[in-house]
Every structure is written in C-alpha cells, then in structure tokens.
Amino acid sequence: MENIEKLHILYEVFKERIELRINEFKKMRSNSDESAVLKEFIFCLLTPQSKAKICWKSVEKIFENNLHIGKNADLLREKLSGVRFPNNKSKYLIYNLEKIEEERISLKDFVQDAMDSFSKREILIKKFKGMGMKEASHFLRNTGHLDLAILDRHILKNMVNLGILNEIPSSISKNTYVSLERKLKDFSEKIGIPFAHLDMLLWAKETGEVFK
After folding, report:
1. How far from 55 is each of 41, 45, 51, 63, 145, CA to CA, in Å?
2. Are 184 and 149 in contact (CB under 8 A)?
C-alpha cells in the first residue's frame, strides 16, 4: 500500500525525535519525582478535545501558582485558557487532587509498580473522575508504559486511512477501545514499526511534531 510506504518514509524523518521522547517516558517511570508525575496526570486530564501544547501551558501555570496544592476551582479554571470544557475539567482536577491527598496516593509509586499496564489503566478509570480509556492510556504512556494506545481523533483518522478500520466508530466503549488497540498493535507488527513509535508517528503525521 502506498500509504504504508509513505509512513515508513515519514518514520525515518521522525524516528530520532520519537526515540528521544520514548526515552524520556521511560525515565519518568524509573526515575522521577512526585511533582513530575502529577504534572503528567493533570496534563492528560486536560487534553480531551484540546491542543496538547495549550494544555501543557496550563499545567505549568497551575504549578507556578501552586494551585495543585491550594485546590481553588475558580483560580484553577482561570489557568485553563484555551482548554476546552474548563468548568468540568477544573472540577475533575479538584476532586482528583483531593482524593490523592486524602487517600495519600503516591502517583510516583503507582507508575513504578510492577503491575501490568492494563490493570493500572483499570484502576485509574475507576478511581479518578475524567479518566477514560484514552486519558488513562495517555498518562501511562507518558510515564513509561509503552504497550497502550492513545486513540484520539488523529490516530483513529489514520487507522481508517491506512485500512486498519473501515470507519471511525460512532462511540467507543471499553471493549471497543481494547479491540481497536489490538488492531493497531497487529498493524505495527505487520509493518515493522514499534507500537509505541507508531502511536507517536501517527500523531506527528497530523500535527507535524513529536510532543507528548
């Protein structure tokens, strides 16, 4: 398929940058502090239907103003400039930050635990508000769990273009998500591009950069 040939050509363009980012993710799992992991957690809660770089700027503003400690919903919302659904997301943040404090949850210990990625994803979805399959997968990938897919609109669109899917599903249940993830893994094995690299490559194909 011509699309696959083009994908391999594009992979050579982005491969070094992808490998650098993947190594950063691995370091997050093996050698990071609580604050760095919490930043990734908040970032992934903010990203649904929003631009990644805008979300990361909001995370930096939250930490610069210590709003992850004060947990003031109004002040948090003010820092979500450009992030979609700021009212709901600020409420999710407050709820989750309070849960982390009250239950003395160490996100650092959680990501470093030897438990498999899929079990960790289940825990995140059940425990925290605003954490669906995509958000939990994103957080885990960014903290060194490289066997999960972040099935956002960029990835799904490319899965159709590459013939992996006939069409983008109108709704994605947990079971559907796992099935789509498996299809993407099978495709990565078929074309010889590592799964974690393929996920980032398809995102870079749409955005022109390797980010988070």
Report:
1. 12, 9, 6, 13, 21
2. yes
Please name the amino acid found at residue 68. Answer: H
Token digits of residue 130: 């605003």
DSSP conformational letter for 166? S
Q: Copy the structure tokens of residue 206.
A: 């749409």
When the candidates are 1.10.20.10, 1.10.340.30, 3.30.70.1350, 1.10.10.10, the CATH number that belongs to 31-142 is 1.10.340.30
Q: Write down the CATH number for the domain with range 2-27+149-207.
A: 1.10.1670.10
Reduced to 3 states, what is the DSSP secondary structure of residue 51?
coil
Active-site residue, from 39, 120, 152, 205:
152
The answer to whether 134 is a known catalytic residue is yes
Please tell me which residue in 89, 108, 134, 212 is annotated as part of the active site: 134
pLDDT digits (tens, 9 = 90+) for 177-190: 999 999 999 999 99
pLDDT digits (tens, 9 = 90+) for 51-74: 999 999 999 999 999 888 877 888
Residue type, 76: L
pTM of the model: 0.94
